[in-house]
């Protein structure tokens, strides 16, 4: 199993809930979207307007090193539509930590 890259407070802003295993895009850097896999603690899904603590495992983090910090808020997107937010509270992957 691949280890998660970050822990975050994840908020859903779309009509249908986010379920464990959801794989949306994340605006990691300005003009750079990457896919990430969500896993939530203690809940199966996050309904519209609600938040939960969980982890995100990004695809190819080596392509965007040193761009995240604790407290950073990133858009969760489906194409150009913003469907949620993730506020980073812990970074597990040191490659992603901003120096």
TrEMBL record:
GO terms for molecular function: GTP binding. The keyword GTP-binding applies. Gene3D superfamilies: Translation factors (2.40.30.10). Keywords: GTP-binding, Nucleotide-binding. It comes from the Bacteria. This is Elongation factor Tu. It comes from Clostridium chromiireducens.
